[in-house]
Amino acid sequence: MSDTEDTLNGGRVYDPEADHAFPDEKLNEVLPVLLDDEEVTTLLEAQNVNAVTRKGYNDHGPKHIEIVLNRALRLYDLLKAGGCEFNGAAEQGLDEADEPVIIALAAQLHDIGHIVHRDNHAYYSIPLASDVLDRFLPEFYDLADAVRIKAEVLHAILCHHREEDPLTLEAGVIRVADALDMERGRSRIPYEKGGRGINTLSSRAIKDVVLKPGEESAVLVEIEMLNAAGVYQVDNLLKAKLDGSGLEDHVRIVAVNTKSDDRLVERIEL
């Protein structure tokens, strides 16, 4: 991503006009259509009902998906710039340009299983996403490539939770990016409704998350915490998802507590 993009938004929003460390033409063709797809948009709105309205959980709707999508593409871009070789598309005989398409589709669809139930939602996402992909992909791919793209997207969706380890770096990106949506805005709705569970309180403790090129690794994740409750987000969620993702050697995490009157935990490095 360009220096201008980093300056304007900290690399938080994918810019199709920016320079990237990967071939972006196919992604730039697919992404606007995906973001404007009526069925997908409706699914993203509907999936928040079980998660937030009925379960009182943190946001899993359109805003969460927007953040995961952009952080997944940012993470992917930094990994590519750092020389990481992705295997999902390549092992299917697809082009390098299909890697970010797989990542974008999986990021957008990974949580749609919530419309069935929060519990085990990754498994419910598979048949729902399969139907969407069967309709969506033929606009951009022939039958053989569409089947292979679909296979990689479904693998990444399934592996975004910790029950199954990713077998591709594309899937690893989705798993880690999902955990990178940890800032306090995500817990606004349950908090305002009186929710005080650990997911809500720990999310409220995270002020900012920034992804940037690392010196010792391809990616440095910098996290600003407001109190020690943020440790749960960093250690129990982000680190847990990084472990087994295939990205462990390429991503370094540094979390700093910037609240002067709370020094129970001042700094975490993973």
TrEMBL record:
Matching SMART domains, A to Z?
HDc
Q: Which UniProt keywords apply?
A: Hydrolase
Hydrolase keyword on record: yes
SUPFAM superfamilies, alphabetically? Answer: HD-domain/PDEase-like (SSF109604)
PANTHER family registered for this protein in UniProt: METAL-DEPENDENT PHOSPHOHYDROLASE, HD SUPERFAMILY-RELATED
Domain annotation HD: ranges: 68-183
Q: What is this protein called?
A: HD family hydrolase
Region span, Disordered: 1-21
One Pfam family, short name: HD
**GO molecular function terms listed in the Swiss-Prot or TrEMBL record:** hydrolase activity
